[in-house]
Design goal:
By secondary structure, the protein is an alpha/beta fold. It contains 9 helices and 7 strands; from the N terminus they run H-H-H-E-H-E-H-E-E-H-E-H-H-H-E-E. Helix content is 43%, strand content 21%. A hairpin with a 4-residue loop joins strand 6 and strand 7.
Amino acid sequence: MAENITPYKNSELGKKEQVAKMFDTISGNYDNLNRVISFGIDVKWRKKVLKIIADSNPETILDIATGTGDLAILMANTKAKKITGLDISAGMLEVGVKKIADKNLSHTIEMILGDSENIPFADNHFDAITVAFGVRNFENLEKGLSEILRVLKPNGTFVILETSVPDKTPYKQAYHFYSKNILPIIGKLFSKDNVAYGYLSESAAAFPYGEALNNILRKIGFIDVKAMPQTFGVATIYVASKK
């Protein structure tokens, strides 16, 4: 099970409240900072997620932990009739709503404030569900994944894009050096929240990945689970379905 890493060590708030507060604080700089931190490679990873989802020809898509809506906007290329972005950070959603309006996609993409552990939709509602760099922020990972399984239609497609840790030398050593020493510095330069990118680095290192996350997905009840490491293993795309 994932270690419960939180953004603010001495806060009396629960993890989800801390995460919402953190993302509200960094929302204005989040998109630019993501491009810098990943050297832009995250765009390539998201396009791979798009292809997986598009191949299933969904009419309805839910993007959980949608943030500023990057993946939800990309999902418009699937020609789905309805795309819903869900996030607990009002600040991130505010940025996303503006981006969606600027691209004339407001008729297709709806952004809603909500909790991944209590998804406000009926059982078997969505043809496809995505989460990009969000599952490690769940307060209760298994509860969040169970909710995703509940609202996914039978034979629906579930895709996670999440950071992971390279296993092979020298990529493993380079990753640890970058995440421990460089990432927090870049975060502090861009963000007024000094702890935010220290948390993101720490939570990424502690989160289960590869077969460990595959096993959790199977335990929850997902089927046809597979993991596809990306860029020497610094990220992984997970694909699963529902009976």
